[in-house]
Give the backbone structure.
Amino acid sequence: GQQLNQSPQSMFIQEGEDVSMNCTSSSIFNTWLWYKQDPGEGPVLLIALYKAGELTSNGRLTAQFGITRKDSFLNISASIPSDVGIYFCAGQPPNFGNEKLTFGTGTRLTIIP
Amino acid sequence: DTGVSQNPRHKITKRGQNVTFRCDPISEHNRLYWYRQTLGQGPEFLTYFQNEAQLEKSRLLSDRFSAERPKGSFSTLEIQRTEQGDSAMYLCASSSNRGDTQYFGPGTRLTVL
């Protein structure tokens, strides 16, 4: 099935560094969501974006809904060990009644001691 | 805990057997979704319900798969005559009537031997 282009695929950083990842699509979305997934668990919602250009923060996390409606980015500032995991973007298309989410391929974040 | 719950968390079965998974959504949510996630990929949409009505099914959902939500509350996903390719994490999510933010359960990890 279709998946969004998410980059980078993986990141190796030191504790305290800032992180940036992004997601692009060939089609427009009405909603962008960012999730974090730990091994063996379901995705946990981090940030939801509903409007083109919207910039939203949740603690050390900041995400933006691109003006073209075809991209989004997520920044994590001052990373800590519990930030380790896989981050997924997900988009919801504008067609009324088409509720399904299309997910990115994920960014695996590893913190080097 | 008032989040989405799924049972069982893990299921190991032999090829050819039938399996059934259950999802209990967040109590005030009337939309319920099933996704499948294979190793190294993001979740892929399978089907979704609004109340008891099944409104969309992905082409990923072969004839061996059936989902129900008889009373508009919990849902079941049954896989008949399982194949090794069915091995995956099966995720359930729910959302409110606005349908814009989906909250995921912990998933059921299926292994077909």
Q: What stands out?
A: Chain A has a mean pLDDT of 92. The longest strand of chain A covers residues 85-92. The radius of gyration of chain A is 14 Å.
